[in-house]
Amino acid sequence: MSGTDTPDQGWRPAFRSWRAHRPFLGGLLLTLGGGWILLTEKASLAVIIHVGMQGVAGYLLPAVMVLCGLLTLFSPSQRLFYSVVGILCSLGSWVTSNLGGFFVGLILGAVGSCMIFGWLPDQEPRSERRRRKREAKTTTEPLQQQS
After folding, report:
1. For 82-128, what is each residue's pLDDT tens digit?
2. Which DSSP letter does residue 2 get?
3. CA 100 to CA 84: how far, in whole Å?
4. CA 104/CA 107 separation, integer angstroms
5. What is the DSSP letter of 77?
6. How far apart are CA 33 and CA 112, in angstroms?
7. Phi, psi of 143, deg, nearest 5
Protein backbone atom coordinates (compact mmCIF):
# COMPACT_ATOMS: atom_id res chain seq x y z
CA MET A 1 0.00 0.00 0.00
CA SER A 2 1.48 3.32 -1.04
CA GLY A 3 1.33 6.51 0.99
CA THR A 4 -1.27 8.07 -1.35
CA ASP A 5 -3.85 5.31 -0.90
CA THR A 6 -6.60 5.99 1.59
CA PRO A 7 -8.14 3.20 3.61
CA ASP A 8 -11.66 2.10 2.79
CA GLN A 9 -13.99 4.12 5.02
CA GLY A 10 -17.21 2.32 4.13
CA TRP A 11 -20.10 3.05 1.85
CA ARG A 12 -21.64 5.98 3.78
CA PRO A 13 -18.85 8.54 3.21
CA ALA A 14 -18.56 7.42 -0.41
CA PHE A 15 -22.30 7.84 -0.93
CA ARG A 16 -22.27 11.22 0.83
CA SER A 17 -19.54 12.57 -1.44
CA TRP A 18 -21.29 11.15 -4.54
CA ARG A 19 -24.58 12.75 -3.46
CA ALA A 20 -22.93 16.12 -2.80
CA HIS A 21 -21.92 16.49 -6.46
CA ARG A 22 -25.39 16.18 -8.00
CA PRO A 23 -28.97 17.43 -7.47
CA PHE A 24 -29.84 14.31 -5.50
CA LEU A 25 -33.10 15.32 -3.84
CA GLY A 26 -34.51 16.85 -7.04
CA GLY A 27 -33.67 13.76 -9.08
CA LEU A 28 -35.13 11.53 -6.40
CA LEU A 29 -38.38 13.52 -6.26
CA LEU A 30 -38.73 13.52 -10.05
CA THR A 31 -38.15 9.76 -10.14
CA LEU A 32 -40.62 9.15 -7.31
CA GLY A 33 -43.22 11.37 -9.00
CA GLY A 34 -42.98 9.40 -12.24
CA GLY A 35 -43.07 6.12 -10.34
CA TRP A 36 -46.15 7.22 -8.39
CA ILE A 37 -47.98 8.11 -11.60
CA LEU A 38 -47.03 4.76 -13.12
CA LEU A 39 -48.35 2.96 -10.04
CA THR A 40 -51.70 4.77 -10.19
CA GLU A 41 -52.29 3.71 -13.79
CA LYS A 42 -54.65 0.75 -13.73
CA ALA A 43 -55.39 0.15 -17.41
CA SER A 44 -54.37 -3.05 -19.17
CA LEU A 45 -52.37 -3.10 -22.38
CA ALA A 46 -55.43 -4.00 -24.46
CA VAL A 47 -57.29 -0.94 -23.17
CA ILE A 48 -54.31 1.32 -23.80
CA ILE A 49 -53.97 0.15 -27.40
CA HIS A 50 -57.72 0.54 -27.93
CA VAL A 51 -57.73 4.10 -26.57
CA GLY A 52 -54.87 5.10 -28.84
CA MET A 53 -52.24 7.76 -28.41
CA GLN A 54 -53.85 9.24 -25.30
CA GLY A 55 -53.52 5.89 -23.53
CA VAL A 56 -49.92 5.44 -24.62
CA ALA A 57 -49.07 8.96 -23.42
CA GLY A 58 -50.47 8.04 -20.02
CA TYR A 59 -47.63 5.56 -19.61
CA LEU A 60 -45.03 7.33 -21.73
CA LEU A 61 -44.90 10.63 -19.81
CA PRO A 62 -44.32 9.10 -16.36
CA ALA A 63 -41.75 6.73 -17.85
CA VAL A 64 -39.90 9.76 -19.25
CA MET A 65 -40.15 11.41 -15.81
CA VAL A 66 -38.50 8.40 -14.19
CA LEU A 67 -35.85 8.35 -16.90
CA CYS A 68 -35.11 12.08 -16.50
CA GLY A 69 -34.85 11.71 -12.73
CA LEU A 70 -32.40 8.82 -13.01
CA LEU A 71 -30.38 10.53 -15.73
CA THR A 72 -30.12 13.61 -13.53
CA LEU A 73 -28.66 11.48 -10.75
CA PHE A 74 -26.14 9.73 -12.97
CA SER A 75 -25.36 12.54 -15.45
CA PRO A 76 -25.76 15.86 -13.62
CA SER A 77 -24.00 17.86 -16.34
CA GLN A 78 -27.19 17.73 -18.46
CA ARG A 79 -29.48 18.68 -15.56
CA LEU A 80 -31.06 21.72 -17.21
CA PHE A 81 -32.36 19.72 -20.16
CA TYR A 82 -33.64 16.94 -17.90
CA SER A 83 -35.39 19.41 -15.62
CA VAL A 84 -37.19 21.12 -18.50
CA VAL A 85 -38.29 17.79 -19.96
CA GLY A 86 -39.27 16.63 -16.47
CA ILE A 87 -41.49 19.64 -15.75
CA LEU A 88 -43.16 19.36 -19.16
CA CYS A 89 -43.89 15.68 -18.58
CA SER A 90 -45.13 16.41 -15.06
CA LEU A 91 -47.54 19.03 -16.29
CA GLY A 92 -48.60 16.86 -19.22
CA SER A 93 -49.37 13.99 -16.88
CA TRP A 94 -52.22 16.05 -15.43
CA VAL A 95 -54.15 15.50 -18.64
CA THR A 96 -52.97 12.02 -19.56
CA SER A 97 -52.52 10.11 -16.29
CA ASN A 98 -55.32 10.32 -13.71
CA LEU A 99 -54.74 14.01 -12.91
CA GLY A 100 -51.02 13.42 -12.57
CA GLY A 101 -51.33 10.47 -10.22
CA PHE A 102 -54.05 12.22 -8.23
CA PHE A 103 -51.84 15.33 -7.96
CA VAL A 104 -49.20 13.55 -5.85
CA GLY A 105 -46.98 12.55 -8.77
CA LEU A 106 -47.57 15.89 -10.46
CA ILE A 107 -46.44 17.83 -7.38
CA LEU A 108 -43.44 15.55 -6.74
CA GLY A 109 -42.33 15.84 -10.35
CA ALA A 110 -42.78 19.61 -10.51
CA VAL A 111 -40.94 20.25 -7.23
CA GLY A 112 -38.16 17.84 -8.20
CA SER A 113 -37.74 19.48 -11.61
CA CYS A 114 -37.57 22.93 -10.04
CA MET A 115 -34.95 21.73 -7.56
CA ILE A 116 -32.91 20.23 -10.39
CA PHE A 117 -33.14 23.45 -12.40
CA GLY A 118 -32.06 25.59 -9.44
CA TRP A 119 -29.13 23.42 -8.34
CA LEU A 120 -25.72 25.04 -8.71
CA PRO A 121 -22.78 22.62 -8.75
CA ASP A 122 -19.99 24.97 -7.63
CA GLN A 123 -21.84 26.84 -4.92
CA GLU A 124 -20.29 26.74 -1.48
CA PRO A 125 -22.40 25.47 1.41
CA ARG A 126 -24.81 27.90 3.01
CA SER A 127 -23.08 27.66 6.40
CA GLU A 128 -19.84 28.89 4.83
CA ARG A 129 -21.60 31.86 3.22
CA ARG A 130 -23.24 32.78 6.53
CA ARG A 131 -19.92 32.55 8.35
CA ARG A 132 -18.22 34.74 5.74
CA LYS A 133 -21.01 37.36 5.97
CA ARG A 134 -20.76 37.36 9.76
CA GLU A 135 -16.99 37.84 9.62
CA ALA A 136 -17.32 40.66 7.09
CA LYS A 137 -19.95 42.34 9.23
CA THR A 138 -17.82 42.20 12.39
CA THR A 139 -14.76 43.61 10.60
CA THR A 140 -16.68 46.58 9.14
CA GLU A 141 -18.52 47.51 12.35
CA PRO A 142 -15.44 48.88 14.18
CA LEU A 143 -14.55 50.95 11.13
CA GLN A 144 -18.04 52.47 11.05
CA GLN A 145 -17.95 53.29 14.76
CA GLN A 146 -14.60 55.13 14.46
CA SER A 147 -15.81 57.51 11.75
Report:
1. 999 999 999 999 988 888 889 999 999 999 999 999 998 877 667 77
2. -
3. 17
4. 5
5. G
6. 8
7. -70, -35
